[in-house]
What does this fold into?
Amino acid sequence: MKHLLPELGYNADALEPAISRTTIEFHHGKHHQAYVNNLNSLIEGTEYEEKSLEYIICNANGSICNNAAQAWNHTFYFEALSKDGKRKPTGRLAETIIGKWGSFEGFVSEFSKSASGLFGSGWTWLAEDAMGELHIINEQNAGNPLRNGYRPLLVIDVWEHAYYLDYQNRRADYIKSFWEILDWTVVERRFSGK
It folds into this structure.
């Protein structure tokens, strides 16, 4: 099975000013594409050649796992971004967030603090465990909560290539703008609410 770079559901300039066309062209068109290409080269002739990204993430190690996770993580990140999306959760997801963090604003504050404090490169996730409890999880490098049995709901990419062209070293400003383009309709679709 050859893994392919998924097309974005929007034009490269659709997220401006939060994320520029230039960043999208580099982040999706070059970085994301490189992970897909690397993975395809690495799995050729191995037991993972015909496996899904999720299977590879949960079962492989080293470069194969890292490139599969980076391909999956980026797709998951880009899927939930929209200039015209829903800006707050509703229904069971909203109730679960409020039940855990006291308010939606409390969740945003805690998530943002976690993403700002992640040392080096990586990802900050909102993920759901098998009982339906929500967790904010920091993962360095290519980390993905799937490996520990969680269901990812949303993620912010805090590798420098995700924001440096637009924000230089101002990660906190990038995180603040992330909430202006995160589409909660997508996040709600991913939530099981067991």
About this structure: Residues 7 and 28 are 9 Å apart (CA to CA). The longest strand covers residues 122-128. Strands lie at 122-128, 134-140, 151-157.
